[in-house]
Amino acid sequence: MKQSDMKQAITQGETSLGIELGSTRIKAVLMNNNFETIAAGSYEWENQMNDGFWTYHQADIIVGLQQAYANMKSEVESAYGATLRTIGSIGISAMMHGYMPFDHNGELLVPFRTWRNNTTSAAASELTGMFQYNIPERWSIAHLYQAILDEEKHIPRIQLITTLSGYIHWLLTGKQVIGAGDASGMFPIDETTQNYNDFMLEQFDSLIKEKNYSWKVKDILPEVLTAGEQAGTITNEGIRILDKSQNLEPGIPCCPPEGDAGTGMVATNSVKKRIGNVSVGTSVFAMIVLDQKISDTHPEIDLVTTPNGNPVAMVHANNCSSDLNAWLGLFREFSEAVGQKLNSNELFEVMLQKALEAEPDGGGLLSYGYFSGENITGLENGRPLFVRSPESNFNLANFMRTHLFSAFGALKIGMDILTDKEQVAIDNIFAHGGLFKTPVVGQRIVAAAMNTPVSVMNTAGEGGAWGIAVLASYMNNKGPDETLEEFLDNKVFKDIETREIHPDRADVEGFEVFMERYKKGLIIEQTAVDHLTTANAIGEQVKVN
User: Fold this and answer.
1) In this predicted model, what pLDDT tens digit does every residue of 449-461 receive, in sequence order?
2) Which ranges carry the Carbohydrate kinase FGGY C-terminal domain (predicted)?
3) Which residues pair with 95 in a beta bridge?
4) Which residue intervals of 190-259 are DSSP H helices?
5) What ranges do the domains of the chain cover?
6) What superfamily does domain 269-458+504-545 belong to in CATH?
7) May I ask the CATH architecture of the domain 3-259?
8) Which of 284, 188, 233 is nearest to 87 (CA)?
9) Could you tell me which of 314, 302, 307, 243 has the C-alpha nearest to residue 271?
């Protein structure tokens, strides 16, 4: 689109804005009605451990939101000479799960507890047994029940619990609502009603009946909305929070707030049955839209939904790229020490390409990139670990292949349950994340892990902020009775270039050999957790002594 046409779209509000609060970055993306990005802004942030919980401070949430928007707005002004005064529609997305309880005055009762916390094992186990439905430790209901078990003082005062996306949407619109995908990471969803499961709500209320709280669980959960519904409009107070310049006008319609899993599905056109997507970053998760019911309860598999309420099997591993990035950082130091400065893209491409020269199983090497605990393999804590035997073929190619295999090791265990035990059919997997900026390598590894064709779109780098902007556009621009699947196929992705790679037999067989080694070696990782003390713990020991 010409610059003059872009400027016209901006001034006339023929746009959609998506804002996503991710684990390391808050990003704002403004796009036109042809789904082209006009401008983007971002804000880097990090979670902190406070009083035993991973959290982001409430003040940092607001500052980051404002800064990402301001950076996007500044880019609009610089590139198009236009002040952003109106937007066609707005959508908010954020990290799923976690726990944000509020009282009747709208005060946050405890600091935001993120998905990263592994503090709810007792609650998650008890609820899973009662519901006969997997309740992961990350889910909001697990956090709530654990707080009840721990007799935390704030529980009687709760008026609302919500997620991070629901909280931001509430600030901007005054509406206590949530999208179906994000809601499904709070409490189990009944696919027939596309709402919280009534029977399980009653079970939970019976479980805590003797506590005599003034609330029932349904009363403190946000209202569930599906894709395409309007979820309120931005208020004057919302404008004051979002746009410090106060140039933006109130009354802009907002779509239901969504979790990062749902927006990742939208950003990769993965909302149809038998289609899945893999999101690669600090953690890794795969989501498969189901065409059949799961027959049994598996702790490795979450049952969530698409933004339009269809059932999804989700396999989520806490650890993925952190250890690989750390090793590449070490190689960067070496290259700089010998006077060869490489930018990140060059370094990644050179090093990752070496994995294609490796032996199929990685030459007998083994690694665990566990920076934190891993629910799928039963590790409460993690220690990044690299192991080899005297017989291993220790070279750079095998080293890189081993770390790539390890990044998807826990995910593969969960996916094998879906495909082998549950016989879930998968026609294709769409992959997104920074790993796939290097052509072919990441796709081949994931295709080997899944034994399924893997595709990468040229929009894969756009991410969840673009995905929630698409959902905001769908709300405003869908045709009569046009489904989300039809909107994505016929309008958003009709001209998008896609690269597909089929599994290579040698890669698949090599990954299976590696996985046997990976599973047998978990006792080594557990021993490292038990006996390798962290720097923080050593510091505490020194203080005590």
Assistant:
1) 999 999 998 765 5
2) 277-474
3) none
4) 198-207, 217-220, 236-242
5) 3-259, 269-458+504-545
6) ATPase, nucleotide binding domain (3.30.420.40)
7) 2-Layer Sandwich (3.30)
8) 233
9) 307
